[in-house]
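Model the whole thing, not chain by chain.
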Amino acid sequence: MAKLDLKVNGRSHTVDVDPATPLLYVLRNDLGLQGPRFGCGLGQCGACTVIINGNATRSCILPVSNATAEITTLEGLAVNGKLHPLQQAWLDEQVPQCGFCQNGQIMTAKVLLDKNPRPTRAQVVDAMNQTLCRCMTYYRVQTAIERAARVMAGGAA
Amino acid sequence: MNQVEEILTTHRRGFLKSAGMLLVGYAAFDAKAQTPGPYRDPDFHQLDSWIVIHEDNSATFYVGKTDLGQGTGTGFRQLMSDELDIAFDRTTCIMGSTDNTVDQGGSGGSTAMERESPVMRRVAAEARRTLLEMGAARLGVPVDQVAVNDAVITAKADATKRVTYGQLVAGKKFNVTLTGANIGAVTGQAKIKAVQDLKYTGQPLLRDDLAGKVDGTTKWAVDVKPAGMVHARNVKPPFACAKLTGIDESSVNKLPGFIKVLSKGNYVAVVCEREEQAIRAARALKTTWEKPATAPFPTSENLFNYLRTATPTSTSRPITNGDADAAFASAATKLEAEYQIPFQGHTAFAGAHATADPSNGQMTVYTNDMKSYGMRRGVATFLGLPLDRVRVVWMQGPQGYGRTAADDAGCEAAWIAQQINRPVRMQWMREEETAWDTKGPAFLVKMRAGLDASGKLVAYDYNARSCDYGHVGYNEPDTVLIAQLMGIRPARPGAGSTATPNDMYSIPNRKVGGDVVSLPNPWETPLRLGNLRDPNGPQSTFAAESFLDEIAAASKTDPLELRLQLLGADKTDDNGFRRARSIAVLKAAADAYGWDTRPSPKPRATGNILTGRGIAYTFRGLTMVAVITEVEVNRQTGHVYTKRLVCAHDCGLVVNPLSLRRTIECGSLYGLSRALHEEVKFDTEKVTSLDWFSHPSLRHADTPERIDIVLVNGDPNPARPDLPAYGGGEAMLKPLMAAIGNAIYDATGVRIRRVPFRDDRVLAALKAAGV
Ligand code: FES
Ligand code: FES
């Protein structure tokens, strides 16, 4: 076990865990941040995605000791209780079925739009292609990303 | 509301806002704060078991169903708000929690709306009738002199005379006894409303469970954390049907957080304080196993040879009309083909999981199992507990249509919790889930058809072999995997079933039937058969609707035209107007697509990308569906991309068109995933499909550029009364394999009779045909 400092969604935490522990379990079980979820533990599906240094990062395969920069989870996207435009687009488009994968979809899309605010459909597909959904909400996820991009650019939904 | 109820409704935000309730923070479940039990079944003859009116004039509906992510909870609220005459956003619902909601069986078979909406409407209507009587008495006017609007009753003659539902009930109970021999027949005295008087039903209202799913506040079954909870992981046999010969506990008992190795028969699990510790210990535990004397199954490569030659365990009597054999023998043109569908796994997005809490001498299981009531019975019997000491709380979970009817983890968590007397969470890992979940049966289907000299279809023969023997039940104490591994066997294994095509074609001589085939050893194997979403539909529809296109091609008829001819040959109305509604969905799909009449295949194009269109139609119960896909086949790589997808769908009364459209859209893509990607691979001792690379699934890049959903919904005859609601959860995925196979044929002239249409298979078929 080792004492480690983590900064998540603007707050500092100290945890006492095995440094090799995947970040996912520390977020979920020690910090009560359950937006990121376990889907595969293999880095293949995206359910556990968090944002670190502006990158979509799969927390199921990242040792907690390597998470030295600030971490953003799904719970950290809304600002002062106002949903991020992506989250709002997700509701407007009624994207989720079961919803279990949607943390991965939303967080991966956030990184995409941060880097490329007006992606083409091909760029959306490319950025999202490693983020899986077994309910097959893909078409609606893509539509919602485009909707959010329009809203963020100041356009109509 | 007790704490569990509060958590089960907290994510339904609209209600909480309008009812002015505070959002209660909860980091963890506190077992002591929970109702201590015993957990008796809610009495279905009491109106209070179904509906509670609160003093703030809001209502909670108790629905014994579960929602797999299709919005059925919102749908029930729409129907019940209408019957109760209360604003939709003053209501909420609690679903599938065995001590709170009447046993309506949880979910399955897409029957939530079809079977249960009449029940829920009747109880809500009875509550309204009761409240009107109470209100009339309070206002001192006859009951026919009161009106109700949004839970406020007024005297018709004097609108200042008013009383709310909340004031009338004021925290008390209805104490109204309902009648009906069983839960499905429960009724009061009130009549339900006519469809045209329903206000919320039919509206595209937003689902009430989505806000919490996009902002991270929903509490899922995976999030439950009773005080003192520890973590368990299974250690699976490395081979099917293996016998455990030794456990070396010293390989793990010094590891941090280690609590216990538990084992009985061939079942092994490890318990540790923390999750990552349990994962590590389960991987590190040294065990030895003995392989079975004979191979439990053939390889996946050899599966269809095996199915072809095996002796069936059961044979169904074919359904016949005319004499198909004689007509075939004398036909001018004879067609014969064999279709092959491999095992396909559920491969739920995340592994099976459950948390069991043995506090207070009871057993509470938190689960996403879609049949929470079945799990309760299974857990009670498995643990030897009286039923009223067990309750199962259904919570949100990852997609697992059918898998969560027999999800294994509930019985495992409960057994371990009982052994160690501590709350414990069980979670299957990815490799474990993909290898060991329940599978949809492989099918081998032999098709024959005969055409007369004019090209008319005169003989039709469908014969399926379904590898479905040993089909498991719903967390039954003798078929759940932990029980199998402990050596428990049911008196009779699940017989399994085969399936015949669902169509309304009129063919003069027709024979359809099938056999069930068993693998050499159906027990303790990763090839366990369970109800995959629409258990046998895609398989039988792939064979039947592909072969229909072969018949169309042989007679140089347009595939849509042939279907319409076969449907139109008989003009009589059937029960449910399936024939008329079949024609309606086919025409609606063709219109939406812009179908031009011509036979398949189209003249072969030059260039790398060949495009084609394919149609398929079927029904499930009384839900009709027709699908048209347009594909691009890359002749260099064999890759099939589905550019367009049109689905015309008729499930009768639409409760919520928005959530229905989403369900059809996603369900169609799931059908596409099974058509393009999904197949379980195995050698003679283990499943070798273990993750998202070795058992691929549809991805963003496979998503069609355009999807059109057409809700046909309706009896084409306006003179008849409205149709009730039929199931909308599965029918749409049935025709996808056939629609894609037919589109590939249209594009290339090559008929591929084996799914999935993976690149290498398609490329090999193109090469073999010289395309
Ligand atoms: S859970 Fe991390 S990628 Fe799947
Ligand atoms: S919404 Fe269910 S897995 Fe994506």
